[in-house]
UniProtKB/TrEMBL annotation:
Keywords of this entry: Hydrolase
UniProt KW GTP-binding keyword: no
Domain spans labelled Nudix hydrolase: 25-149
Keyword Hydrolase part of the UniProt annotation: yes
Record lineage: Bacteria, Pseudomonadati, Pseudomonadota, Alphaproteobacteria, Rhodospirillales
Pfam families hit by this protein: NUDIX
GO MF assignments: hydrolase activity
Cofactor(s) the protein requires to work: Mg(2+)
Protein name as annotated: Nudix hydrolase domain-containing protein
Amino acid sequence: MTTARRTLPRLLHRAHNAYLRLRKPLTLGARMVVRDGEGRFLLVHHTYRPGWFFPGGGVKKWESFEACAVREAREEAAVEVESGARLFSVYAHFDQLRCDHVALFLADRWRPSGGRLSFEIAEARFFPADALPRDIHGATHRRIQEILGHRSIDPVW
């Protein structure tokens, strides 16, 4: 990946976060958990920040949490959730002067969309629960443990 391809998205991400802290003191987000037939988890790696995450992002005006999670799965991971996106839990996410709430959905039925990954995604890949990437984001790892029943649901992202 070229330096420009990494640097510009990081700068835009930082500027966007600064804007949100000043202009929108409360933000809403949604993430989608997609598992394949072998039970592996679909994770994405962004171009602008380190770590692996579930596909997801901010809820737009006039958009529901579920619609946001479905849209982000399509845009970030080229996955079309066909039906049955189930709400798993809603989390509070308070860090970096941010007041954020994140809804986590589970995709029951999905298919590859045939589309391209968003410019902000460097890679999307399935991982078995027992072989997750080393640089998986801590909250993503905790959510996987909750989904598998290895830990109770923590209301904080």
